[in-house]
Amino acid sequence: MTASSTAATTSTNCRNCSAATNGAHFCPGCGKIQPLAAGADYFGFFGIPRKLTVDLATLERKFHSLSWKLHPDHFVRASEDERQRSLDLSSQLNDAYRTLGDPVARVEYLLSLHGMRKQGQKKQQAPPELLEEVFELNESLDELREARASGGNAARMSGLRAKLESAQQKFESSLADVDQELARVSADWDAALDSGADEVTMKKLMERMNEVLNRRSYIRNLVNGVKQELVTGDE
Ligand SMILES: [Zn+2]
Fold this sequence. Notes:
By secondary structure, the protein is an all-alpha fold. Helix content is 66%, strand content 0%. It has helices at 3-9, 42-46, 56-69, 80-100, 103-113, 131-149, 154-194, 199-234. Helix 3 packs antiparallel against helix 4, helix 6 (131-149) packs antiparallel against helix 7 and helix 7 runs antiparallel to helix 8 (199-234). The longest helix is centred in the last third of the chain and has 41 residues, at 154-194. 19% of the residues are buried. Residues 1-10 have low confidence and may be disordered.
């Protein structure tokens, strides 16, 4: 991981014809496939700005076009080196597409690029506005498990199930609210970028995104837990 060992492999000139490649996947001079550019991120991979509003139609078009150009089938008669590059880039392409195509994964990725994604202990705590509901939910879950273990009567079981189903709906609507909030803060991020906001502003926005993501992950776990419990009851 020393600077010199990376420097040797991060040349931005084509090894075939020495033309400057500027991070392109194919040399503008000779057309040979290039290794992944040093420090390239998923946004750079697609040649799109590092923003949270991504035009999905454009992304998909670029994905299909690159997918075709980088396909290992085109490199069966190429050198071992080029064949390997096509494999590496194809795999990177798929990861990049999956990540940038999803608005939540996209924010997570952006934060990780900035070293700002933190899933600390806070992740385990219920968001204050949901504390009461989470408490009630856990009670119902305990009751249901107890009733099931002791072969509880059908009426009681179905009452508890109904309670859980309504809790599930409530948390699913909280999840939708959180997604909207994430969309809002994403739009704020892009607007701040466009207006050349200072570092402090950008950092605050990333902290907000991180907080929203933690809340989202907490609620999603709740929803999944309830779903799981309801499915178990069906067996
Ligand atoms: Zn070249």
